[in-house]
Amino acid sequence: MIVELGSFALVLAFALSIAQVALSAAGRLRGSAALTGAGEGAAAGAFVGIAAAFAALIHAFVTSDFSVANVAANSHTAQPLFYKFTAAWGSHEGSMLLWCLALTGYGSVVALTGRGLPWKLKASTVMVQGCLGVLFIGYTVFASNPLLRVAMPPVEGASLNPLLQDPFFAIHPPFLYSGYVGMSVVFSLGVAALIEGRVDAAWARWVRPWSLVAWSLLTIGITLGSFWSYYVLGWGGWWAWDPVENASFMPWLAATALLHSATVTEKRGAMAAWTVFLALMAFTFSMLGAFLVRSGILTSVHAFALEPKRGILLLDILGIAAGSGFALFAWRAPKLPPGGLFAPISRESALLLNNLFLSAATVAVLFGTLYPLIAQAAFGAAVSVGPPYFNLVFGSLMGAVLLILPIGPLMAWKRGELVGVLQRLWWAALAAVVVGALVYAFHEPRKAFAGAGVALGVWLIGGTLTELAERARVGRTSTGEAMRRLRALPRGAWGMTFAHIGLGVFLLGAAIDGTGKVETAKVVAVGDQINAGGGYRLSLDSVGVVDGPNYQAERGTLTVTRNGAPICTATPERRFYPAGGQTTSKVALCLRGVSDVYVVFGERRMGASGTPGWLVRVFWNPWARMIFLGPLLMALGGGISLSDRRLRIGLPRRAAEAAGAAALGPAE
Amino acid sequence: MRIGALLVVLAALACLAAAETPADQLPNAVQEAHARALFKEIRCVVCQNESIDDSDAEVAGNLRQAVRAQVAEGRNDQEIKAYLVQRYGEFILLRPTFSAGNAVLWLGPFLIVLAGAGVLILRARGASAPEARLSDAEEAKLRELNDF
């Protein structure tokens, strides 16, 4: 009964989304507040409908109602309650419903809170968001309904893929999807601005918080996903340039570019058309990701929710939404009024350069991901594009972005002075070169990449701290005064500082882990020892059998020592899930500062001396945790920026009016 | 659909987890390191999307042995890759060759930078130089915006 109510709510949400489009459009055309208000109400109603459908799905999962096809395919009575719950978004159908939940959720927040938006812009935004709702909810209702019943319910379910039965996996899709779909608001605002023919500081001021929300959530989602792959897949790495990973990375890159260009549009009214373009691009990449991940058109290690036929439908949705958005852009963007002028050496130019390189880097990821398809179609050649390509091309373009990064924030708006900025950055440059050279000289094994990566990381952190010190006038005023100035800094400035330092932290981790990783594999019997990298020595103390809730495991207990002193006990497991007949590995991580001793327990094998043992693989991953810590700092920066008083709900109204009035004046 | 998805998962699982059987390693550490570096550039042809360095599949193991044998014979990277391409096609190379056909792939992103820079330079020339400093109105607006 509850499932049928959920199905009803889903269809109701579809109908309400159609009403949302019709009412908002009619209200916008007739200038009727009653009609646009009804459109906003429909937006909220659509969210309630999807939320009810989602609740019904979760109920079906938690109660193991195997008469629902999706539950039978993705759950099992022996699965722990937590994974029954999260299995709701572990499949194609369930994850699309989660997508719709986020989409209508954002839509209703825009509808109910955007009081400061000019009413025409708001009505158009709600309308466009409704169009997206119609497309995606329609897809869910007609092609991917997770609430369908089966005629002959099985006695037992097929269980969720064991790889996905992990706390980090469980929480990463909601973050990821809130991030992907958060870009829909930016998309809708962009299309609405094109419809209204008005892109100004007031508009940019609305785009920024929404892109910040989506960007921060996406950052957390990607980081959690990367950490999941780091310690669940047992391969010791954290990023493989796999199509599914790239699919989540492209919207992130576009959103990063958008955050920076929207700043220019907000402060100086310049680059308006470009900002709109990026606003459309960010969600287009999100939709492209949804298509790539689910269509199975590209082979990926993370393929678990794919379905070729429905992939075509998703491609159609992508074509309709992005196609009409960009067609509108091509038609209306040339008519947008030009923004403020700026000199070649200025903050605007630095941000423009940042955008140029970021866009090229995004294109490199896009090209590399799609090239196997293009080559197949164009000249029938089967080509692979793997990590070596991405590391080289993406790496060199991002290197350029990182080189100019510390210069931008120190530059004055409109016309800056490069020499003065470089003079203030000399110590950061010196520190970067010295530390980079030291790493190159002493880091084992000697790799130019380690030196360059660390130098760039130090340059970023040093440059960002310089900017902070400049703002506080450290050294040129009393300490008390400097502290007072630091406290008085706007939250937006602190957000930027955290995000840029986070990027530097990430870079340090990636450079040291990427070059210093040591892998050791050995077949050991109880009592044997392994000499791993980083000076660690592991001895296998015992091997036992563990009965999990829905798996059986062999668990090795290893003592990790360094120079004879015990460090920690690692208990990696090799788990067998009888429901699906699958085997997974539970990695043991022994945290040492920001580094990891990473232990994978493998299958039984014959050892070198003819005695049977277990294949144990140990990775020494120096500074690996900084790879995940850095992006979390970036997301924290996004959150701090969002808490800025001028971005808080309610306040933008006054500011938007003021900014709007200013924008109405002469462009200069 | 169910069975298809399951097969995909099983295939992926067979390929998961890095494979480095200790007994197979070359006695010469320099050669072993050389072989390991090459593994990362060679695709496991039956896996979902992995190099033979990461893959546990049987084919990957065989390929590793083939590459090790050639490294031990003192062949260079080019010869080994040519051998693999001859047997499996270009699909096996994770680093696409820098050929005329692949020029778009390798140069495209850099051409975008050049084209973008060209457009910006042309625009900067076309536009008249702005006043050196912010006007009073702009200063006021910036203050109003509370700076970033």
Describe this structure in words.
- The complex is a heterodimer of chains A (668) and B (148).
- With 668 residues, chain A is of the alpha+beta class.
- In chain A, 64% of the residues lie in helices and 11% in strands.
- Chain A has 21 helices and 10 strands.
- In chain A, helix 7 runs antiparallel to helix 8 (201-232).
- The longest helix of chain A is centred in the middle third of the chain and has 33 residues, at 347-379.
- Chain A is globular.
- The termini of chain A are far apart.
- Chain B has 148 residues and is mostly helical.
- Chain B folds into 2 domains: 2-92, Cytochrome C biogenesis protein (Helicase, Ruva Protein, domain 3); 101-146.
- Chain B is 57% helix and 0% strand.
- Chain B is built from 6 helices and no strands.
- Chain B has helices spanning 2-15, 29-39, 58-72, 77-88, 103-126, 136-144.
- In chain B, helix 2 (29-39) packs across helix 3.
- Chain B is elongated and about 75 Å long.
- In chain B, 28% of the residues are buried.
- Residues 1-19 of chain B have low confidence and may be disordered.
- The interface between A and B is large, with 85 and 65 residues.
CATH superfamily of the largest domain in chain B: Cytochrome C biogenesis protein
Estimate the helix proportion of chain B, in percent: 55-70%
Q: From the 3D structure, determine the CATH topology of the largest domain in chain B.
A: Helicase, Ruva Protein, domain 3
CATH hierarchy, class of the largest domain in chain B: Mainly Alpha
Mean pLDDT level of chain B: 74
Biggest pleated sheet of chain A: 6 strands, antiparallel
Shape of chain A: globular
Beta-strand percentage range of chain B: under 5%
Largest sheet of chain B: none
Number of helices of chain A: 21
CATH architecture classification name of the largest domain in chain B: Orthogonal Bundle
| CA gyration radius of chain B, whole angstroms | 26 Å
> How many helix segments of chain B?
6
Radius of gyration of chain A: 27 Å
Uncertain segments of chain A: 649-668
> Distance N terminus to C terminus of chain A?
64 Å
